[in-house]
Design goal:
By secondary structure, the chain is α/β, with parallel strands linked by helices. Helices cover 41% and strands 23% of the residues. The protein folds into two domains: 118 residues, Response regulator (Rossmann fold, 3-Layer(aba) Sandwich), CATH 3.40.50.2300; 96 residues, Winged helix-like DNA-binding domain superfamily/Winged helix DNA-binding domain (Arc Repressor Mutant, subunit A, Orthogonal Bundle). Strand 4, helix 4 and strand 5 form a beta-alpha-beta unit. It is found in: Cytoplasm.
Length: 223
């Protein structure tokens, strides 16, 4: 399932776009501001972003620029009432991949979404390749040089999360909240145990290392 984040403070339009995309077979989630979008992206994985430009507090330009600082690959499509060339130019300069002027034809929006996903090679599957490691989020499999490495669901999700946001530090509490949920009887030390297992299982990977950030948590660093 392809996950799409729709960022637009027009609640009715946001809901309409999400409903249409969901009917097309995607899983779309709508938020009304860039700050809400940051929270969503921090806690969940998305394959594509659709964003308005004119939003309160943080506009689409600043939002797209911030996203690009931490994720160079995710496709970003602007959907805006601004039809002037300078706005379009600024959007592409900050790193967006496509631009549609409101009001949009939903059928055309779907076509552009599929084209962006196709160019990103994630139309049919969610895969992450780092060096000799390949992770398939739909099959929940991890292979090194084509050989499958046995992992639990939690191990897979932690590693996939770290590698999806290289150089980003995740605290033990953040990882615990996301991957252990309401299991309050589990100590934060459980995160350390899982990271130790991941380091051992993926010690032959040549594309990344899991670094300890003293006093905070962990981050993946690409080699």
């Amino acid at each position: 399932m392809i996950h799409i984040l729709v960022v637009d403070d027009d609640k009715n339009l946001n809901q309409t776009v999400c409903t249409y995309l969901n009917d097309c077979g995607f899983e779309a989630k709508g938020v009304l501001s860039a700050n809400e979008a940051y929270d969503e992206m921090y806690n969940n994985l998305y394959e594509l972003i659709i964003s308005d430009i004119m939003m309160p507090e943080i506009d689409g330009f600043e939002f797209a620029e911030t996203v690009r600082q931490v994720n160079k690959q995710i496709p970003i499509l602007f959907m805006s009432a601004k039809d002037d060339l300078p706005s379009k130019r600024k959007g592409f300069l900050v790193g967006i991949d496509d631009y549609m002027v409101k009001p949009v034809e939903l059928a055309e929006l779907e076509m552009r979404v599929r084209a962006l996903l196709r160019r990103s090679n994630i139309e049919m599957e969610r895969k992450l390749i780092v060096g000799n490691l390949e992770m398939d989020a739909d099959g929940m499999t991890a292979t090194i040089n084509g050989e499958e490495i046995p992992v639990t669901t939690r191990e897979f999700n932690i590693l996939y999360k770290l590698l999806s946001y290289p150089k980003k530090t995740f605290t033990r509490a953040q990882l615990m909240d996301e991957f252990w949920g309401l299991d309050s009887g589990t100590s934060l030390r459980a995160v350390d145990v899982y990271v130790t297992k991941l380091r051992d299982k993926f010690s032959t990977c040549d594309g990344f290392e899991i670094k300890t950030v003293r006093g905070l948590g962990y981050k993946a660093v690409l080699l």
